[in-house]
Amino acid sequence: MGYNLFYMAKMTLSEELKWRGFVDHTTFGDLSKLDDKKWTFYHGFDASADSQTIGNLAAMMFDKVFMRHGCRAILLAGGATSMIGDPGGKDVERKLQSEKIIDHNVKKAEEQLNKVFIGYDFKLVNNLDWTKDMTVMEFLRDIGKHFSMTPLVQRDYIAKRMGEGGSGISYTEFSYTLLQGMDYLHLHDKYGVDLQLGGTDQWGNCLSGVDLVRKARGKEVHVITLPLIINKTTGKKFGKTEEGAVWLDAGKTSVYQFYQYWLNVDDEGVEDYLKVYTELDKDEIDGVMAKFNSNKAERIAQKTLAYEVTKIVHAQKRADEVKKVSEVLFGQGDFLKLAKDEIDILKAEMPVVSVSKGDDLTSIIVKAGLATSNSEANRFIESGGIYINNVKTTQVSDMLFKDGDNLLRRGKNDFAIIELK
Fold first, then answer.
1. Architecture of domain 350-420
2. DSSP secondary structure letter of residue 93
3. Is 244-345 in the same CATH topology as 3-228?
């Protein structure tokens, strides 16, 4: 059963899109026209990397709003377009990837789409299927003849590359927008697609599809683009860290790191992130924000966000585990009651040190990397900065380790797992 079959909307589609902040550019003069029928839409996902990011996740949550309101979804993995790479936002030509790598990336993208959209009805397609056997003559006669060069060369990203001081643009990258337009035409013909969703950086490419369908079929179709999600505190694109992108693949960004990222988002933007990245409705988010604004130190908004997003990407079991683990780390739970799978989450994120019952506490702290010398370790102990399984120890003689795994903490944020044998 698809999620949209039992979703009881408190808002119309256009109202929910505007409330969640999901509308930037659109071909609709009046967005409420969205509410007149159930649309068949498509949204393409890039396969130039072997994992989607939380930037892509915002696009998926955009899609889910339409799906909850009964619209039919066609999700497109860009097996063909990823071989070229979208030149939008790029100052120089990107290095082309092999067909084998793109095929691998498409499979990974499909796995993640299936996880994020579990419980929803959608059709998954790959644009390589309708481009790989097309001849050059067919492309030029059936697609190319409908495009005028003048508006294409005036597009910002093309004009920048072709203008004075630009790096230039190859015909390969120049043709990207024609391929994306062809996707819209093919999906319109085969599935009746009449709406394309995309990121705001795709606005020009989306219009190529609208124009192509109008010229080739005489039909009016539409586009809505999602605005770029911005970190209000830094003014930079949301989802970037010092280490790089936040990935949906647990092998690239662990479930723990993923959860912690959301747990640490800025206060100023957290309400917007709840609207974009969760399926909580207006009443639920208003309730969370009321509690948050009454006591920001408790960070209830960030905790709710972290749990809800992790549940969507990594499933409820993993979300429950990492939530419990995080609570234990910050003194809100009993480490000794964690299950093996939960302790394994921590072992992947922090030093693990094996010790014997005869080892003294001072040397254990140094061995765990929580102090640089025995004297420094002793000062930490005496000042009350050392915790064993969340119990403060102020005496060097205090040995509170249990057989097996233990949590050693210095201060608030420095940890190690101690294996007592």
1. Roll (3.10)
2. P
3. no
Instruction: Please name which of 227, 191, 196 lies closest in space to residue 210, comparing C-alpha atoms.
Output: 196
For residue 175 the two structure tokens come to 């043709």
Looking only at Cα atoms, what is the longest distance across the chain? Answer: 85
Hey, where are the domains in the chain? 3-228, 244-345, 350-420
How much is the pTM? 0.88
Q: Which one-letter amino acid corresponds to residue 109? A: A
DSSP secondary structure letters along 4-72: GGT---SS-HHHHHHHHT--SSBS-SSGGGGGGS--EEEEEE--SSSS-BHHHHHHHHHHHHHHHTT-E
Which helix (DSSP H) or strand (DSSP E) does residue 61 occupy? helix 54-68
For the domain bounded by 3-228, which CATH number is listed?
3.40.50.620
304 and 288 Cβ atoms separated by less than 8 Å: yes
Query: Beta strand 244-245 with 40-45: parallel, antiparallel or unpaired?
Result: unpaired
What is d(CA 417, CA 421) in angstroms, rounded to the nearest whole number? 13
pLDDT digits (tens, 9 = 90+) for 365-380: 999 999 999 999 999 9
Dihedral sign from CA coordinates of 24, 30, 34, 39: negative
Contact 117, 2 (CB under 8 A): no
Model pLDDT for residues 391-413, shown as the tens digit of each residue: 999 887 767 899 999 999 999 88
State pLDDT tens for residues 52-111: 999 999 999 999 999 999 999 999 988 887 877 655 554 455 567 788 888 899 899 999
3-state helix, strand, coil in the chain (%, to 5): 50, 15, 35
Q: Cα separation of 307 and 354, whole Å?
A: 32
CATH code given to domain 244-345: 1.10.240.10
| pLDDT single digits (tens) 310-321 | 999 999 999 999
